[in-house]
Amino acid sequence: MFTITRGRLALVSAVAVGAVVALAGCASGDPLDEGNSSSGDTDTLVVGSQDYYSNEIIAEIYAQALEDGGYTVDRQFRIGQREAYLPEIEGGSIDVFPEYTGSLLQALKPDAAGGTADETYTQLQEALPDGVSVLDMAEATDQNSWTVTQAFADTYGLTDIASLSKVTEPITVGGNSELETRPYGPTALKEKYGIEIAGFTPVEDNGGPLTVKSLVDNKIQLANVYTADPNISSNNLVALDDPDGLFFADNVVPVVSDKVDDGAAEIINAVSAKLTADTLVELNSQSVNDQAAADTIATDWLTKAGLL
Question: For residue 150, which of 6, 96, 156, 205 sits 20 to 30 Å off, Cα-Cα?
């Protein structure tokens, strides 16, 4: 089973989980792409995503690639945070979901050792429950980071997470409410580095524009922003170095159910093989800066990558 440890990852209530509607599709379709044909059960593959624009783009890329290979896809995007969708994956209601190796590993096994990208991937494979597996991880990462403004970093000579201990003014942290109980959250900053946090301000946009604005406006001084976010560069922010590995390597990785056959796995792995770190930043920039829709971004990239 997926186990979410009380006190480290907040458990969702039965009502919250129940609110995630039944996702299983039951339509049938014969794969049309020769060499990628599905054998046996040809039920619809349900592709899900987090309530996060970047994750939705990747999910849409998977969905379009699968459809091009002849598979019928049911999109169930913007489901919510990990506490909500993990039980749905385990229950078989979702067949394909873009995840991040380190974050998922820590959700399944909070005391995991972590390490290099490959070590984290191997540990994740071992931590998954029966009926759930991961395909090839991509080079692309959307790493958690503790992020500050350049001005704040310059004032205190901040370079890495540990250097936050030099800050003499109160530090208010901003991020999703779940951040308070994450293994790398404010408690970890105190226990590992002796960094005192003056307060926590919930900003429920996954380190997005609202979080960035709160940083820039100095309403918060420290935020959990993903490293593939183009706002880091465009708003002159600094993602502090993490030499101690507080954050695990977070390569993009597809989590799949047993319904994903060899043909579908081959299609998704081909996507992962071309999804680089720079590519993900560019895809995110099209969403954030150009306000392009996820389906348009996905189609353009798949076409340029020779996957459509």
Answer: 205
Helix (H) or strand (E) holding 82: helix 82-90
**CB-count burial class (<10 Å; 0-12, 13-18, 19+) for 211:** buried
The DSSP H or E segment spanning 130 is none
pLDDT of residue 1: 42
Which stretch of DSSP H or E encloses residue 37?
none
Q: On the CB side of 181, how many CA atoms lie within 13 Å of its CA?
A: 14
Longest dimension (CA), the chain: 64
DSSP code per residue over 240-308: -B-TT-SSPP-BEEEEEETT--HHHHHHHHHHHHH--HHHHHHHHHHHHTT---HHHHHHHHHHHTT--
Q: What is the DSSP string of 178-206?
A: GGGGSTTSHHHHHHHH-----EEEE--ST
CA–CA separation, 308 vs 295, rounded Å? 13
Which string of b and e fits 224-250 if b means at least 16 CB within 10 Å?
Answer: bbbbbbbbbeebebbbbebeeebbbbb
Higher-confidence residue of 44 and 85: namely 44
Give CA–CA dist 109/120, Å, rounded. 11
Residue with tokens 């089973």: 1
